[in-house]
Amino acid sequence: MAPFNRAAYLVAAKRSPLEVKSAAYTKPGPGQITIKTRAVATNPLDFIKQTVGDLLYDWVKYPIILGSDVAGEVVEVGKGVTRFKVGDRVVGHSIGMAKKHNSPALCGFQEYVNLLTHMSSHIPDSLPYENAAVIPLGLSTAACALFQKDQLGLQFPSSPAAKSTGRTVLIWGGSTSVGVNAIQLATAAGYEVITTCSPRNFELVKRLGAIAAFDYRSSTVVKDIKKAFQGRITAGAISIGQGAAAACMNILGSCKGDRVLSMATYPLDPMNMPKRFVMPTIAYTYLSGMAALWIKAKRYGVRSQFIFGDTLVDNEVGPVVYEQFLPKALADGSFVAAPEPEIVGHGLEEIQRALDVHMKGVSAKKPVVTL
Ligand SMILES: NC(=O)c1ccc[n+]([C@@H]2O[C@H](COP(=O)([O-])OP(=O)(O)OC[C@H]3O[C@@H](n4cnc5c(N)ncnc54)[C@H](OP(=O)(O)O)[C@@H]3O)[C@@H](O)[C@H]2O)c1
């Protein structure tokens, strides 16, 4: 008999809280595994979708199961799967909302989740599920930015780390979930990293591999980073956080090397959504923000594009990261699960609270719910 499954559903595009209900248990297809979920983590994507409704992922039909970050134990493997067996401990990026894959069975906030094997990795016995669950979307987004040919197109990471390329990457927002993964991936690929975060997180980002960290709130931060790049050759930048893209363009404009920028954050702040005239205000903020960035990119001679953190599922970067790099790097300790989980509670009913905690703002922490 199929196991009884439950999920946390977003039932309508009305900013309504998640509702926990029974869900179908779907057997894994070819190239898939099913896990009993032990921990999930939240991402801005989840509360942004809950806030903006059909402005994002309008192809996904309600009721929707959100969630990209899951860790758990394999309970069933699909046809042709040899890399995993029942009982294995894994972490995976659940990509059920991605346009090409659009399927509730592949979404994260449920007790049984189907994962694509090339977006899943074994985790060491020493790594608790709640720590592993923080990895996926941050890692995937960082990997898309650094390694996809249409983004920075850097050489791939390895463990032990690749020989130094002698080039430097700017990662603006190094203490974010995307940033802590980007620092480690870029370092493992043989690049030096200069980053920004709050001073309380300088020690963290340096421990993960950054050679220098600057306070993004400082009035001299752009000038200070330009100085740090003197005598260095850049391989490009990733901008994470509001205002990051414009600052990175300004810095790249004075750097030697590749003036290429991958932008993780769109010019729309989900923490400051309008209360009135919602759609026109969002449309105006977004379009004027995009126009300003386009003008800046021209002015500083920067090639820039936004990242979609799930595009690696359909190119060579997904298997490089989840099959080749991550399992080995976690096992030998050269890559650590970061940021720290902030365990909000236990059970699907607690996921809404985790989203609320995340939306209020976190610092080098990721809300996690154990299941
Ligand atoms: N395009 C995509 O596919 C994609 C995928 C994932 C995430 N994102 C976007 O990437 C951003 C980060 O997401 P996340 O999950 O990594 O975030 P997160 O971990 O929840 O972000 C928290 C961190 O943000 C930092 N921060 C806040 N404002 C900042 C700013 N203006 N500049 C630099 N850092 C700032 C804080 O640093 P301190 O505490 O050190 O001050 C804090 O550690 C969000 O905008 C998110 O929407 C995009």
Folded structure, characterized:
The protein is an alpha/beta fold. It folds into two domains: 5-135 and 337-370, Alpha-Beta Complex (Quinone Oxidoreductase, Chain A, domain 1), CATH 3.90.180.10; 139-306, NAD(P)-binding Rossmann-like Domain (Rossmann fold), CATH 3.40.50.720. It has ten helices and 17 strands. The strands form three sheets. Strands 3, 5, 6, 7, 8, 16 and 17 form a seven-stranded mixed beta sheet that branches. 50% of the residues are buried. Bound molecules: NADP nicotinamide-adenine-dinucleotide phosphate (NAP). The site of NADP nicotinamide-adenine-dinucleotide phosphate has 30 residues, from helix 1, helix 3, helix 4 and strand 10.
Give the overall form. Answer: globular
Distinct ligands, ions and cofactors found in the model: NADP nicotinamide-adenine-dinucleotide phosphate
H-E order: EEEHEEEEEHHEHEHEHEHEEHEHEHE
Q: Tell me the CATH topology of the largest domain.
A: Rossmann fold
Main β-sheet: number of strands, strand sense, barrel status? 7 strands, mixed
Structural class: alpha/beta
Number of helices: 10
* CATH superfamily descriptor of the largest domain: NAD(P)-binding Rossmann-like Domain
Strand content: 15-25%
Low-confidence stretches: none
Look at the structure and give the mean pLDDT: 96
Q: Tell how many strands the DSSP assignment holds.
A: 17
Helix content: 25-40%
Keywords:
single chain, 371 residues, alpha/beta, Quinone Oxidoreductase, Chain A, domain 1, Rossmann fold, seven-stranded mixed beta sheet, seven-stranded parallel beta sheet, 10 helices, 29% helix, binds NADP nicotinamide-adenine-dinucleotide phosphate, oxidoreductase
